[in-house]
Amino acid sequence: MSLPQNIVILTGAGVSAESGIDTFRGGGGLWEQHRVEDVATPEAFARDPDLVLRFYDMRRAAIQEKAPNAAHRALARLEREWPIKVPDGSVTLVTQNVDDLHLRAGSERLIAMHGQHLSAWCTACDTRHAWTGPLIDRPPCPACAAPALRPDIVWFGEVPYRMDEIHAAMAQADLFVSIGTSGAVYPAAGFVRLAREIGAETLELNLERSQGSAWFHETRLGPATQIVPDWVD
Length: 233
Ligand code: BJW
Known about the structure:
It comes from Novosphingobium pokkalii. This is NAD-dependent protein deacylase. The chain has a domain of about 140 residues: 3-Layer(aba) Sandwich (Rossmann fold). It is built from ten helices and nine strands. Strands 3-2-1-7-8-9 form a six-stranded parallel beta sheet, sandwiched between helices. It has a three-stranded antiparallel beta sheet with strand order 5-4-6. Ligand BJW binds next to helix 1.
């Protein structure tokens, strides 16, 4: 295959697993400690906000103790060193992860489609604020002072962020790479089919095959800290 110009990379929890952040569906993953429907829906938040805020406060504190790994660093390096620059070509990183490890590794063309732990959203005035502390005590919104901040995370039933930008990047892609995601959650799970429809090459990098594995031209199996730098280099 000739050198692609536009690469879209989708990452999931597997890319941060070796930084010590639990995946969602693996053994010991978050869903086993907390049922998703108890924490990750707007209905759960309406029913038991304290449970949901405690859960996210715990995770927001935990990710600040973690560091990017060799996979995050390799993806940032790929973007930095990619020889074809916008508008002629680009590397776009779309992450489902809500940690900030891609950002801390240096990725800039980054779309966090499921939101971010280190951000709070005021449902009273619809503003977003960098946030590292707890939300359980209902701190006032820095913009309007209402005690209406919630985690800036896309819950089930909510629309993921920046879908227009993702679709625009996908429409230009000649290579789509999926890394460390189970392919269980839509719309991200459908990106490989979009990529196939427009004729892009597709590559999966994962510890084990994802639910959508059959859609990829090629799958390489192994831990992200090995197979991602191997692919980038
Ligand atoms: C390694 C590794 C190592 C491990 N190295 N790899 C029925 C059918 C189809 C769709 C639906 C349906 N019913 C409802 C829906 C829609 C719903 C959905 O998809 N539900 C499914 C359960 C079926 N989706 C939504 O509601 C979304 N919104 C939506 O669709 O809006 C409509 C709309 C869309 C677009 C335009 C207009 C309208 C919203 C989804 C929000 C997802 N949010 C979450 C949780 C946030 C809460 C929190 O963070 O606490 O985001 S869900 C959770 O799953 C999280 C993740 O980002 C997401 C994906 O998980 P991921 O990253 O794949 O992790 P795992 O654990 O599943 O997999 C880990 C992988 O890593 C595995 O493959 C391992 O092999 C691998 N791995 N170690 C390499 N060392």
